[in-house]
Amino acid sequence: MNFNSWALTAVVFLPLVGLAVVLLIPKEDENAIKQVTLLTTLATLAASLYVLFHWVSNKFYEADKLAAFVDEHGRTPFEVNKSWIEVINSNYHIEVDGLGLPMMVLSAFVTVLCVIYSWNHFPEPHNPKAFLALVLLLEVGMNGTFVAQDLILFFIFFEIVLLPMYFMIGVWGGPNREYASIKFFLFTLFGSAFMLLGFLALFFKGGRTFDIQELMASPEIANMPRSTQLLIFGGLALGFAIKVPMFPFHTWLPDAHTEAPTVGSVLLAAILLKLGTYGFIKIALPILPEAFETYAPWIGGLAVIGIIYGALGCLAQKDMKRLIAFSSVAHMGYVMLGIASGTTVGINAAVFGMVAHGLITGMLFFLAGSVQHTFHTRELSRLGGLLIQAPKMGWILGFCAMASLGLPGLAGFWGEFPAILSAFNPRPGLSVELFRFYMVVAAVGTVLAAGYLLWMLQKVAFGTPKDEFKDAHIHDVSRAEWIAWLPLLLLIVALGVYPNLLFKLTDSSVTALFGG
Amino acid sequence: MDLVQAAGTNPVFDWHAFAPEIVLVGTILAVLLADLVGPGRNSWQASRLASVGVLGALVPVLTLGNDGVDRVLFDGAYVVDNYALALKGFFLVATYLTILMSVDHIGEGDYYQSEYYFLLLTSVLGMTVMASARDLISIFVALETISIPTYVLAGFRKHDRKSNEASIKYYVIGALSSAIMLYGMSFVYGVTGTTMLKGINAGLAGVASDELALVAVGVFLTLVGFAFKVSAFPFHWWAPDTYEGAPTPVTAFLSVASKAGGFVALLSILYFGFDQQADTKWWLVVWIFAAMSMTWGNLGALKQTNIVRMLAYSSVAQGGFILVPLAAYGIAIDHDLSASVRDTAWQSVVVYLLTYGVMNLGAFAVVIAVARRTRSGEIDSYSGLFQHSPALAVIMSLFLASLAGIPPVAGWFAKFTMFRAAIDAGGGWGVTLAVIAGVNSVIAAFYYLNVVRMMWFRPAPEGAEPVRMPAALSTSIAFCVTGVVAVGVYPQLFGKIADLVTTGG
User: Fold this and answer.
1) Chain B residues near residue A199 by CB distance under 8 angstroms
2) Contact state of B453 with A170 under an 8 Å Cβ cutoff
3) pLDDT tens-place string over residues B208-231
4) Domain enclosing residue B344, as ranges
5) What's the complex ipTM?
6) Would the CB atoms of B449 and A182 count as touching at under 8 Å?
7) SS (H, E, C) B289-341
8) Domain for residue B431, yes or no?
């Protein structure tokens, strides 16, 4: 292993080292705990940025450039492939590509911001040691999922995130936290049990390997009976769809989001949901392309139902956070529509949508958390006049609402618009009429999105403060909040103005996997 | 094998092969004698002697393993191979952990100490013999040696009605199941004319079609007998009462070591004896036992309010999970699948047994620790454990997560190999069983997490103090938690063992 491959391992396991250190610090020494956590997440971010810059400066996103760097074992610069569980022929195989890299960096980035935001914001029952330890454990799972190239390794990382999030919701969550946490847990576990069965079937039918790249090239899978392919894809899709979540598996999401503490919601929205969509484009589609074509109309259908249902759900909410949670269902619908089209445009849009939704919705959840912190309520009917009492926060909310509804020039647009566009011309073999119908429905969804987001903005930010808060002493954006939010806001603008920053990274990998 | 010939030969006695059992027998006698001549009843010497003896018995197991020669004794009735050694090692380690858990529990209660360790050691002697037994009679004798001391141990709280009930129930059911099993074995002997598993396997292969029904009855009754022993549905209902009534360390021992003893016997009989006999569709019986034990055990566990009863039902369900690869094994034989499919199933049972042992013993050790303070086995009494004893709560969460099969703790790998065996056997039956197991893992997660929920999400009662941990108990917990994490992160540890034992003959 050379320096570069260590860098990637560091991105995954540095948080674990930090976790061990945090556990050794006594509970009372809160400052030391916070500092160690911040340093760890910063170091992890630095390692992931090193990978990113190395990748970009050497133009690894161009296939021939990358090929020039492949070593004598056929490995790319960041690749590690070591034996792990010999009995089942599973390896510690990690690598980055255009799909995983942006998500990995996003994950390391958002975690840092969450730690900064938490600094003085620990929800009841406080206990920063346990809280930050869980954040670090969560980061191991999130970063690991985006670099794993082995199905078992992927499965482990995919599952590692479960327990920390369960505790985060259950211990630091809102009044209905016990119900929300177990619901989140059981839904995901149910899906992943079937996902695991799918992985095993791939292993036995696909040449006794768990390696994603080997499985993609496996002749056994190409010659597999169609019915088997459909069955396996169904298992994988169930696991991923619950995580996304797609309609009708979405019911855990509003509960989990509403009850979770702010940081939990942010991580859930920004990263955890993407594990599902990432699984689709990294595993299910490339390995079983034919089965995908059979399922695609259904996935697309559920995606647009999700878009409309999520939007209507938003309009019926009384709670600001729950509204944002439902908007997630709608936004993930666009991502899934892009994926269902099966085209390079659609999948590029999906990856962009994942990142953009991570930034924007993450930001919205931060805002909801701060609103809750200042007003001790998130009820839309009780809020109002944020622009008067806390103008900075009000403007940021307005900005995020615009970004979320897909205003051109901000990041959200580039996730939504190409996804809708891709449905105009789906991959050959899919029904053009059907997908064009989906396109129309999705376009209607954007109007609804504008409706509910502006409605929320109007309720929370416009008007005059309600009587109960008229004389309340309201803090505007604090310093920790600025530090945590500014990078997000800047990125939303940067990606919106120059989307090629991201498309350039993803396009070659997407073309390699799905082009032609 | 005919007895005349065996009597005629004069085998060279292989002392090395029997060294673990000899050390155990020596320890058993020493424990009894020390009680007669030693300083008096409530001394700690019995537990010390017992632990030294069990660890001492591990030494020859290791040297035999290092030696690597398969020793076949008594014309194949008693075999010391990697399979036997791995399980002997497992039984001895599990017993050592049980002793560590018992030291304070038994020492502080009003118990006869040396009798307790005497019975425990006698039972483990049966287990080590069981691991090597390849003959119906030695299997039966080993099984009774395992069981009879545990009947007494279950009733060790003499003045507690529940413990009395536990003992008598366990005894009656145990005797009944032995009788049924013996009856089944007699049919098998009647058809094949031998008690040696190898001979049975050969004899059954050439059995006439009109005798097939007889074989089927014999095999069926034998399986039913074992179903009692491993508390598989519908013969599981003694387990919750017995587990609740018995002293908790004994319950841990029953649910891990004694249960594993039954599984080992089952594994040996199926693998060495009924290997050719898929015509009788015995796997269908195992399939039903597996599916029903998982489902019934889990549904039963859902509504329990006492943690020991919950773990009892959970162990019924876990037993169902362990039966899954056995059913897959039968399917593989029936469908003439390659030997590798059978090896997968075989490995899976061994991996599951080892993993289950570590995580379940760990969970019971924490139950014993918590009960020292709360004097209660109610799940409610775990509320707020995270606030006053955070380390213990984290460790218990790890054990429960492992039982639920959530990575990165060991249980996931056991579940994984179980799924792997079922999918590898394939076909409608294999896949259906895998799906049933999948749904059951989710149900199981619910009640395991219910305890986690109590520990983490609920406030601690007023004035709750941290749980005081005696050294021996801490050691056993530390051992289990290390094992659960190490195997979870690097499953090759157990995978390697399972890989070795496939060569067992």
Assistant:
1) none
2) yes
3) 777 888 888 888 898 888 888 888
4) 281-505
5) 0.89
6) yes
7) HHHHHHHHHHHHHHCCCEHHHHHHHHHHHHHHHHHHHHHHHHHHHHCCCCHHH
8) yes
